[in-house]
Amino acid sequence: MASYRVELTRTAEKQLRRIAKRDRNRLVEAIRGLVARPRPRGARKLEGYDDVYRIRVGQHRVVYEIVDDRVIVIVLKVGHRKDIYK
């Protein structure tokens, strides 16, 4: 299986910078893990979207889209679970 390329949207980059360093490091590791496994154990497909998933990292969530034909994972949002779906 080919490894995927991970891209962050501008919004996701800004959201990631606002998160505390300790939590940010855990999120970055989880995002890097998407290179090898874009659908890791525990990833959930979001209802109402074709290829949008989310992973849990403690109290935070990473919402991302998988483009299989281009072998890319696009991180759309990163944030606390209470704010991410708004």
Helix content: 10-25%
Return residue spans where pLDDT drops below 50 for at least 5 consecutive residues.
none
Mean pLDDT: 95
Which percent band covers the strand fraction? Answer: 25-35%
Strand order of the largest sheet: 1-5-4-3-2
User: Helix and strand string, N-terminal first?
Assistant: EHHEEEE
Q: How far from one another are the termini?
A: 34 Å
Q: What class, by secondary structure content?
A: alpha+beta
Largest sheet: 5 strands, mixed
Tell me the number of strands. Answer: 5
Radius of gyration: 12 Å
The geometry reads as: globular
Q: How many helical elements? A: 2
Report what the structure shows.
The model has no long low-confidence stretch (mean pLDDT 95). This protein is of the alpha+beta class and 86 residues long. Helices cover 24% and strands 34% of the residues. The protein has helices at residues 10-17, 21-33; strands spanning 5-8, 44-45, 52-57, 60-67, 72-80.
Brief sketch in words of this structure:
By secondary structure, this protein is of the alpha+beta class.
